[in-house]
Amino acid sequence: MNTINVALPHNSYEIKVGAGILAQAGPWLKGIGFNGKAVIITDSNVRPLYADALSQSLAGAGFSVTLLEVPAGEAAKTLETAASLYDRLSEAYAERSTLILALGGGVIGDLAGFVAATYMRGTPYVQVPTSLLAMVDSSIGGKTAVDRGKLKNIVGAFYQPRMVIGDIATLKTLPPVELSNGMAEIIKMAGVYSEPLFDYLENNMSKAMGMDLAVLERVTVENDRLKAPVVERDEKETGTERIMLNYGHTVGHAVEAVSDFALKHGQAVAIGMVAENEIARRMGYLDSAAAKRMEKVIKAAGLPARPPALNIKKVMRAMQQDKKVLRGRVRFVLLKSIGEAFIADNVEPALVEEVLSRG
Ligand code: NAD
Ligand code: GLY
């Protein structure tokens, strides 16, 4: 079992990563001072798999547990679902001190985190990620949100969890497409910050995709060790540090939206990384060998490297709505080499269109 600290001025917490650690949730949370009521928010896929184990651990540590389920999938990440959760929390007599546990993938983490941030002006919450994407990205750093129409994560809050408990053993039931999805964010992290992690991914991708839990644990831990200090240095993305985590996301978010979310987040980010590498290559920042290595790893993770047939004009327009747009300039995170990235706001729209139009 590994513990990674996220040290913040007011909201420090630990990320626990290991196989079979769900059973320790109750004692750990009691150990950091929680007791009384606990509400688990989960989805319809994850509930039958892991809600009992988490409930039993909490009950064994003396918590009185309520379980709230929402339908699985991005379509549930809305203000309407949040409103139904507020109602169900009231019916369960949840108080401001009641601990909320987000048990599931990134949808549940973002939704339950948003509910925790807003119910009674803020109740404590814990992330219990069960998808790889949630373990390596969404559960860490306090970004919570819901969607409105096609606008993803448009209503939300920065609200840090009190602990993150990532039980690697839960990945055993994750569909392969979701494993690929999470792998996209690990490849992103390695691309921006760590050639050694990238080398490891290159050499171990088939084991990881074959559900080798030791490999998955190692890449998750290394990834989280890279993300924690970024959150520490730029908790609310007011500086430039946290924006680096959006490598692949400028193009990625746009193709994801224009595909009407037929593309999953990780697939869109993979397409975004390949396109943004090509932009960096054509601008003379990244060499072809590095771009090719990256594309090979992306494909080995079962991810797409090219966008499906999409209306490019719509993709260009969607990019203008990106949260990274600053004074009308679309900002890109580009690689100089594997492990080194920078923010570019001088990318010509014509170049982006040309790259997206290539076969
Ligand atoms: P998800 O939560 O929809 O989970 C993917 C699917 O896997 C769902 O059907 C879910 O029910 C199922 N699932 C989860 N764990 C499982 C398990 N162990 N076994 C079997 N099935 C399981 O999607 P996701 O990819 O985890 O997260 C995507 C969401 O995360 C998006 O809404 C995205 O915007 C958000 N996100 C947030 C951040 C952030 O910083 N807050 C970062 C990246 C992504
Ligand atoms: N997922 C990007 C971030 O946490 O900032």
Structure description:
The structure is a single chain. The chain is α/β, with parallel strands linked by helices. The chain has 13 helices and eleven strands. The strands form four sheets. The protein has a four-stranded parallel beta sheet with strand order 4-3-5-6, with helices on both faces. Strand 3, helix 2 (47-60) and strand 4 (64-70) form a beta-alpha-beta unit. The protein is globular. The model has no long low-confidence stretch (mean pLDDT 96). It binds nicotinamide-adenine-dinucleotide (NAD) and glycine.
Q: What attributes characterize this protein structure?
A:
binds glycine, 4-stranded parallel sheet, binds nicotinamide-adenine-dinucleotide, 11 strands, 13 helices, 3-stranded mixed sheet, alpha/beta, 359 residues
Q: Which structural class do the helices and strands define?
A: alpha/beta
Q: Catalogue the unreliable spans.
A: none
What is the 3D form?
A: globular
Small molecules in complex: nicotinamide-adenine-dinucleotide, glycine
Global mean pLDDT? 96
Put the structure in a nutshell:
The chain is an alpha/beta fold and 359 residues long. The chain has helices at residues 25-31, 47-60, 79-91, 106-118, 132-138, 176-193, 195-209, 213-233, 249-258, 265-282, 288-300, 312-320, 349-357; strands spanning 2-6, 13-18, 37-43, 64-70, 99-104, 125-129, 143-148, 151-158, 163-167, 332-337, 340-344.
